[in-house]
Design a protein that fits this description.
This protein is an alpha+beta fold. The chain has one domain. The protein is built from 3 helices and 5 strands; from the N terminus they run αββαβββα. The chain has a 5-stranded mixed beta sheet with strand order 1-2-5-4-3. Strand 3 and strand 4 form a beta hairpin. The model has no long low-confidence stretch (mean pLDDT 88).
Amino acid sequence: MTGGWISQGDRSRWRQQAAGELAAILAAHLGIPVIAWTVTASGGALSGQVLAPASVRRGLFGQWRLALGLDEVTETPSAGGTAVYLHARGVRGGVAVSVTATVFDREEDGR
């Protein structure tokens, strides 16, 4: 199509590319505990969410961030100050990849 329209075929190709990249990621990192992965609705990206027990969540987030080479990282404290939202993002194999986690530092540190 012309005129900047995104076709269903485009979205399908993006989903297949993202699914292929996810398969490559999982095959290359068998030693890291698994996290929840989603191919985004648009099909052009992968989103990983760390749902592990709170005591290991920050560490597992860090393992995946390093393994995937995700250099753009943010830590955003919640308004109440209890939770911290972690978000790392980058591009692998032409696919946008992000990993997120919500940590509760007070509980993890025993404070």
